[in-house]
Each structure stands twice: as C-alpha cells, then as structure tokens.
Design goal:
about 45% helix, globular, about 15% strand, three-stranded antiparallel β-sheet, Sufe protein. Chain: A, alpha+beta, about 140 residues
Amino acid sequence: MTEENSDFWQDHSLNYLEMALRSDHHEEIRNPDGYGKKMGDCRDTIEMFLMLDGDHIKHVAFTTDGCLNTNACGNTVAHLVEGKPVEKAWEITPEQVAAFLQSLPEDHFHCAELAVGALYLALASCRAKLQTPWKQIYRKG
C-alpha cells in the first residue's frame, strides 16, 4: 500500500468512507415517482430517482459519472431522505450532507450542492405528479 492510499484512509471519517464506497443505491429506476438530473460546473452529473409509498420516500436511487466525492454525497442524500416524508426531504441542505460526511474536502462542497440540487428536482417532479394524479395512467411502461 502506498503512502498516498494510507493518507486517504486516515484523512476521511468512517461516514465518508462508507458513503463514498457504497453502491447499493446505484441504479436507474424505470418510471420513478420523482426524477431529477443535475450537472455541476465540474461536469459531474447526478441523476436521482425517487419511489414513494404514500407521502413517504420508500426508495432512493441515483447514477453519477462523478468523482468519489459526488458518490459520497449521492449516497448521503439517499441515506438522509429514505423513509422520510416528502415534505421533510425538502429540508435537506448541502451543509447537512457535508456535516454528515465529516471529511468532505472543502474544495468539493459543490458535490453536496449537486446531489441536493438533483434531490430538489426529483422532489419537484414528485410534487407535480402528486398534483396531477390523472397523468399517472399515461406513464409509459
């Protein structure tokens, strides 16, 4: 193991390491209840997919072509909102994502903004669908 790798493991919190390396939320969901896609100035892209059970977020999935920091932020957003009411999910902020991770590099705070921005777009998509439930019958299968 090189000294570079050793520094990575020592420089990050357990929360950061777990969220950066998780892959259980990595998937595209066909016909989600909510969908949001956001691209950052860094050119990283994240897509968020939400599945609801009534007014609660049952499952969160995402895809990203971004760096490990973006992956950590996407997983953190999923962790923070899954099982919560949709209206509570609107309260999640990039600062909360960074605080949960504990060791997100300051120069990668934009990754938290990117993940939360995609969440907000997905939540807005959910809200629009909930306000027009008659459109659900026209969803493509």
